[in-house]
Amino acid sequence: MIKLIEKRPLVTIALFTMAVLLPNLTALEVGIMEARNFISAREMLTEGNWILTTLNGEARYAKPPLPTWITAIFGAFLGIDNVWGLRLPGALMLMFLGIGVFTLSRKLSLSKTHSLYNGLIVVTSAFVVLVVFDAPWDIYAFTFMLWSIYYMVRWLQKDTTLGVALGIILFLAAAILSKGPVALYVLLLPFLMAYGISFGIAKSQKQAFTVLGFIGIGVALGFCWYIYVKYVDPIHFNRMTNKETTNWSSYNVRPFYYYWNFFLQSGVWTLPAFLSLLYPYMRSRVNDLKVYQLSLLWTLLAVILLSVIPEKKSRYLMPVLIPLAINCGFYIEYIIREFRQTATWKEKVPVYVQFGLIGIVFISFLVGLYLYPLFGEIPWYGYALFVFPMGIGVILLRSLFVFKNIRHVFYLTFVGMVITGFVISPIAQGQITNGNYRPFSEIDLPPDLPVYGYEMAIPELIWAYGDRLPSLDESDLVSVKIPSEFVVLECGICDYMIEEEFVGYTLKLLDTVNLNKIAPGKKYYKYRKTARVFLAKKR
Known about the structure:
The structure is a single chain. The N and C termini lie far apart (about 75 Å). About 60% of the residues lie in helices and about 5% in strands. The chain has 23 helices and 7 strands. The chain is globular and about 85 Å long. The chain has helices at about 1-5, 10-20, 30-45, 65-80, 85-105, 110-120, 125-135, 135-155, 160-180, 180-200, 205-220, 225-230, 235-250, 270-275, 280, 290-305, 320-340, 345-370, 380-385, 385-400, 405-430, 460-465, 500, and strands at about 55, 60, 450-455, 470, 485-490, 505-515, 530-539. It has 3 domains: about 1-340, no CATH class; about 345-430; about 440-539, no CATH class. It is an alpha/beta fold. The relative contact order is 0.09.
């Protein structure tokens, strides 16, 4: 089986990514970032706002349109309210990211098996997976930029064909059309610096200058949308750019060292990722020192460039995990190759800790769910299903401590992930632990009356409503454009009394919307996802 896995690495990465993600695409509730993106995609289909993109009918130029276009196309075929279908392109992008890491690793002369390790590590790094749900447009930008980098490496290695040139330009432009200049700064710039230091450009100056020219063309092509929007709608565009520029310097400011624990974002690969960063230890153990130096410098330079920006969020580290996965792959390749032969007992201890903990997690997952029910009440068959990941855990620990076969242990880790995902999926789907959960589908709204939100722009509520939800403010209440009778939603976290705001109106409480499936008091319960529904009549 392992020979087959390593013989077809691209198929392995693709099948593994889809096996983990596809059954679980609807396990998580739609978050605030996702809701914004899905609303924009919905309004592309329902209102035709493909170029001048909108959010609840208002201009939204902070996010470039390419990922929204892709999502809208999937929505057109699979259903614009189908969350599984809208998340599918993000899952596919994660798959292409893993394939891209493998392909780039091969182009950098790493072995097929070593490159497979890199691809599997990146698609299982915690923040890389979470970004598919938490900030889904990021995965597009960094995947496209990685593929542009792959074609740059081909060109620098003197594969100077038209297809390679187009690959550099088009993928770079796609990255900009997905998240603006971010990928240029945090992924491409540190790569170019690291590549120049590790490999030099003395023998390929002509190719290097040509690559810079292609980058310029790609940047120009990628920014065409921005230029067009600025020309057509300068007021809203300038307002957006001023806000984004201000945020970079004054919003969510963190100290310079905020990102120094970046390797923790690898999740299950935290310990190998950290050890792979220890250059004095790794330099004599890697099978290609120049490529290792490239991945190490690429990782560290990306962290430094992120650190100099005052605005910091943990999810901004996602692109750092791409070169870190390649770097981590060197450590994994070493311990698989030398664990039995030359590894000292000091080197074996971290391996036993790393994979021993994984095996214990597989075995004890059921106990954890019983003591702390993550999904509420688990049906009897749910407990029965967990015999499969428990079995993988037992086999993994036996391979680790008895046979000391780290190659088997490594692949068993991924098998356990897939099986655990399949077991959790039927248990997680539809689980509701909040007795007050009440979506819009259960709200009996008066027919033929317009629905508004009062000083409320909560993306999750607008998305769940299924249509535009025009926002009212105090000045609108005296406008002749407002009908004498309408339905209004009051957000659950507002600090005002709506009865005091609606002077001259009679308000009747109809119901309360609550989109939280988990009970109040839990970590992920969001009060912003609640709203009182009133019938308003002018006196």
